[in-house]
Amino acid sequence: MAETLLQLYDVTRSFGPFVAVSGVDLGVEAGSIHAVIGPNGAGKTTLFRVITGVLRPTRGRVVFAGEDISGKRTHAIARRGLSQSAQITSLFPRLSVLENVQAAIVSRSRRSSDVASWFHWSTRAEAIEMLERVGLASSAGLEAKVLSHGDQRALEVAVALATRPRLLLMDEPTAGMSPFETEAMVALIAKLRHEENLTVLFSEHDMDVVFGISDRVTVLAQGRVLADGTANEVRANDEVMAVYLGAPE
Amino acid sequence: MAGEAVLPRRPTRLVRSNGSGVGRLATARLIATPIVVIGLLALLGRTLSINNVLTLEEVLGLAVFAMATNLLLGYGGLVSFGQAAFYGSGAYMIGLSWLHHWMSFWPAFVLTPVVGAVAALLMGLIALRTRRLYFALLTLAFSELFYQLVNVRYSFTKGATGIFAVSMIPASLAQPRTGYYFTLGVASAAILLLWKITVSPFGLVLRATRENRERAEAIGVNVFRHQLLAFVISGAFCSLAGALFAVYGQSTYPDLLNWTTSGQPLFMAVIGGMFVFLGPALGALLYQVGFQYITQHTHDWQLVLGGALLLVVLFRPDGLSGLVLSNPFASLRRRIRGADSGVTEAEATSILEQVPATVTPRSVDQREQMEVPPDG
Fold this sequence. Notes:
CATH architecture of chain B: Orthogonal Bundle
Strand order of the largest sheet of chain B: 1-2
Distance between the termini of chain A: 34 Å
Oligomer: heterodimer
Distance between the termini of chain B: 35 Å
CATH class of chain B: Mainly Alpha
Shape of chain A: globular
CATH topology of chain B: ABC transporter involved in vitamin B12 uptake, BtuC
Radius of gyration of chain A: 18 Å
Largest sheet of chain A: 6 strands, mixed
Number of strands of chain B: 2
Helix content of chain A: 25-40%
Structural class of chain B: mainly alpha
C-alpha cells in the first residue's frame, strides 16, 4: 500500500439543522486517481469545500501529508500543495491566459508581495510550458474570458498545476462539457497522472468517466459514505446500483 | 497529446500580455515615453505664462493623487471613499510642522509618505475586513472622522480657518517656476515608482485578486494582505500628493479631508480611464483645465461635471484613454484576423508589441469592464 496523502476522519458539516456531510472517513493514496460519486445533493461539493478550507468542518479532522489542516484558511492550505479546480469555472477573466498561469507561479514562488522586481517576466517560459501541457500555448495572449468552456477548464488545470500541487482536487471537472470536451479532459487527467505522478481526487456525475480512469471510488449518498473500494468493487455493489437506479442522474 | 483534442480555436480577441516580458520595440517605447513626456513638461515650464504654469503644477499633484487612488480602483478593484484622509494628512503634515515648529519643511516633506502609509495601515486593517459597499462606507466614515477632528481641534489645527502661510514652504519653492520644477520632479519620480509597482509581481497578483478573489486564494494568495499592501502604498502616494498641494497652495484646510476631495481622484480615474496606467493623469488634466475654462463661462461647474461623468459611464466606461486606444486595437485585430492562417505566432507577437506599453491587458468590450468583479 502506498502512503496516504489525504485522510479525512469523521468529517461532518451541517448548515443549521441540515447535515450536508455526515461522519465521512476517506483516504486518498499518493499517486492514485480517486473519484467521489453520488447523486445530486449527496454532499460532494460541500465535502470538497471543507477540504479546501472554504468551509470549516463542524466536526472531524482533515489531515493532508501528515498535517492537520482542518479549519485552516484556503490560501494557507493551497500553499501546502493542495490545489483545486472548482465546479463552476473560476479564472481571472480579464487577465491573459499566460498571466493566469503566471499569477499562480508567482504565488507559489512566494513572490506575490514583491513590488520591485521583474520576477514574473522570468516565469514566462515555465508558464508557456504549463500551457503546452494542456494544449493552450497558442492562446497565451488571449484574455481568459474569450476561451471556450472546455478550454477554460483546461486553463484551470494549468493554473492548478502551476502551483506544483501534491494533490489536485477537481469538483466535477467535466460539468457542462460537450462529449468531445469531456473526452479531452479525461485524457488530460490520465496524462497528468502518468507524467506528473499527480494524485487526483475528483467528483463526477458521468459514470463512464469515473470507471474509465479511477483507481478507487467512494460513493456518497445523503452525506454519508455508502461504499468505498476499487472501481470494479463499487460497480458490483448492489446498494450503489440501487441508489443510482432510484435517483437517476 | 490530449491537448490536441481540445477544440480548435482562432484568435478572437488579442491583448498584450504586459506581465510577461516585452520585446525590443516595446522596451524602447517604455523608456522613451517618460523621457518625452517629462521633457515636454519641463519645456512647458519655461514657455507657458505664470498662470498656466501654476495650473499645470496643480495638475501634476492631482495626477499623483488620482494615480495612487487608481492603484486601488483600477488595479485592485477597491472603491475607497477615504482617500482624502491621506491627501489631507500630507498637506497637514507640512502645515502643522510649520505651525508648531516641529521641524523644517524638508524633513516634513520626506516624512509625508510615511504619515500616509501609517494612516492607511490603520484604516485598511479595519476597512479591508469588509467588502464592496461596506468597504466604501467604512473608508468614508474614517475620512469624515479625520475631517471632523481637524475641524474641531482649533488650538491644534486652526480648525475651519485652516493654515495659510507662504512661509510654510522654503522661499525658493514659493517662486512659481521653481515650485513647478520641484513638483514636476517629485511627481515624475512618484509616477515612475507607481508604474514599477503596477508591473511588478505584486501588480500582477493584485489584478488577479481584482478579477477573482476566491481563485486568488486557491492559488495560495493571502488576499487581505495584498489588498492591505495596496492600500498602504496608495495612502503613501496620496499623502505625497497632499504635500505637493501644500507646495502649490501654501495652505492647508479641512476641506482637503472632506469626502468631496475623496471623490476627485475617483472622478479623474473614471474620466481618464482606470484600465490604462496614465488614464488618471489624463483625467486630472481634463478636470483641472476643464474647471478653469468652464467656470469662466458658467457657475454650473458641478452640472457640467456630473453630465460628463454620466456620459463617460454610459458610453465609454473605460474612459477617454480607452477611446483613444480603441482604434489601434480594432485595426490590430482586423490585421491579425484577416490573415488568420497566414500570421505566425512570432509575427502576431511583434504586431502586439507595437501597441503602446501603457496599455494594460483589457478587452475593448466596454460594459463588462465596469462590472465590479465578484468578491466571492
